[in-house]
Amino acid sequence: MASCQNKEGYELVWSDEFEYEGLPNPEKWEYDTLGNAWAWGNSELQHYTAYRKENAIVKDGKLHIRALKEEGFPTQYTSARLMTKGKGDWLYGRIEVRAKVSQGTGIWPAIWMLPSENKYGNWPKSGEIDIMEHVGYDPDTIHFTVHTGAFNGMHRTQKSSKVFLPKAEKEFYTYTVDWTENKCDFYVDDRKVFTFKKESDNTDEWPFNHPYYLLLNVAVGGTWGGIHGVDNSIFPQAMEVDYVRVYQKK
Question: Is-catalytic flag, 27?
Fold first, then answer.
């Protein structure tokens, strides 16, 4: 951890190294289940649970977010959607998550950020920063996206990029956004892969001037992840997270 705090010009302000066992640290993580009632607006198939080790557990130095096919729930799939809202909210910073993504047709893991308050209106007007998304039917590709009122997925105007990463399902990579008052730079390990720049003060184009929180989740199906259906033979599936670190400029 000493070396973590020595990034040039930055200091470590929040982290979880997952060096413990059991449920995710309740001082740092909360469970997001509210959208179960409306399939999260994306026609997703999973039911997100809370405080359930089968879906979110820390062991062997890593957080495991697990999607399962099982009975006894409102849908036939369960998973977890963890968030730092109210426990980790930041205005600008370098957010790093080292992870290995889940795999298989129908799976949709993500590392992303939402506004702590909808300062400029409901989604997407107050913004969304997708540090990493992966859809299992496209196993060699990792996506990076920004949504705003002017640039959003509902109108297919979102600003995004993608990289070819054929070992993403088998190896750990560090997915990062370096978010400042003028731009968002996205990285895989130390390689910059995408930049979204502030072009004006219009909040429809740049709403990224208020605090955001981090989310980690594994979805099943949905308008993107489920385009080619769900292969039920893949379950259980897990995204593994080695650490989460948040730095801000000194």
Answer: no
pLDDT digits (tens, 9 = 90+) for 13-67: 999 999 999 999 999 999 999 999 999 999 999 999 999 999 999 999 999 999 9
The amino acid that residue 128 corresponds to is E
State pLDDT tens for residues 100-153: 999 999 999 999 999 999 999 999 999 999 999 999 999 999 999 999 999 987
- C-alpha closest to that of 229 among 79, 130, 108, 73: 108
Told to judge if 133 belongs to the known catalytic residues of this protein, a careful annotator would answer yes
Q: Choose, from 128, 169, 171, 205, the residue flagged as catalytic.
A: 128
Beta carbons of 189 and 122 less than 8 angstroms apart: no
Q: What pairing do the DSSP bridges indicate for beta strands 212-220 and 237-249?
A: unpaired
Q: Which residues on neighbouring strands pair with residue 197, listed in sequence order?
A: 183
d(CA 65, CA 72): 19
Helix (H, G, I), strand (E, B) or coil at 40: helix
Whole-model pTM above 0.85?
A: yes
Are 57 and 64 in contact, with CB atoms under 8 Å apart?
yes
Considering 133, 181, 205, 240, which one is annotated as catalytic?
A: 133
Distance in angstroms (rounded) separating the CA atoms of residues 18 and 114: 23
